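Title: Comparing notes on inverse folding

I've been comparing how different people in this forum approach sequence design from structure. To keep things fair, I'm posting one structure and asking everyone to reply with a full sequence. Here's the target:
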């Protein structure tokens, strides 16, 4: 295997293949593998995981750069190190108004390779293993806003009247929310963590 520090995303498929071959070995067969080789494989897997999540980060950053904020109640978004901070200029503005900013492009970028997500609600409610359809990022975005606003996710769906009533102040009151995602860019799942924060715009 190539030097771990020199690995790129071009090495992702090969690294996954080698990992799968190792995992398919019996315990007796694994015992015969040089421990140094196993350590190098584990380091390579960690590096490819890091690169895969960084790839997703770069896509999200590019999408955020294309947003427009006029009439949304949001003055700007800063995304770095897996945290998206929304700066709220008008807390009384309805949250749904932000959909006109181009934010769906951000969710499209975020969920392009995501297969599942787990939402950690501010009220300590956890919605685990929610299936994500990459062709319908709006549905994922609605669930995120709903949970952050304290709206229950029901099997029959989310009450649209409740969603329309959500204000940016409601999201500021929640403060932040953690989202765990499972991405599948090639032939393996990688787990990442995002945080969404709503806070008052700086004067």
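Reply #1:
Here's my take.
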């Amino acid at each position: 295997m190539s030097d771990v520090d020199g690995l790129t995303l071009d090495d992702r498929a090969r690294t996954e293949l080698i990992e799968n071959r190792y995992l398919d070995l019996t315990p007796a067969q694994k015992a015969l593998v040089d421990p140094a080789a196993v350590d190098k494989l584990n380091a390579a897997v960690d590096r490819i995981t890091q690169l895969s999540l960084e790839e997703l980060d770069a896509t999200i950053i590019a999408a955020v750069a294309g947003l427009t904020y006029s009439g949304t109640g949001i003055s700007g978004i800063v995304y770095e190190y897996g945290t998206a901070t929304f700066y709220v200029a008008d807390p009384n503005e309805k949250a749904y108004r932000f959909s006109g900013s181009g934010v769906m492009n951000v969710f499209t970028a975020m969920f392009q390779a995501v297969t599942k997500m787990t939402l950690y609600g501010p009220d300590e409610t956890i919605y685990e293993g929610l299936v994500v359809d990459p062709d319908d990022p709006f549905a994922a975005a609605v669930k995120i806003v709903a949970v952050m606003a304290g709206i229950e996710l029901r099997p029959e769906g989310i009450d649209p009247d409740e969603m329309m009533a959500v204000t940016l102040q409601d999201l500021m009151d929640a403060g932040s929310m953690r989202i765990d995602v499972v991405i599948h860019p090639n032939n393996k799942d990688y787990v990442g963590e995002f945080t969404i924060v709503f806070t008052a715009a700086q004067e």
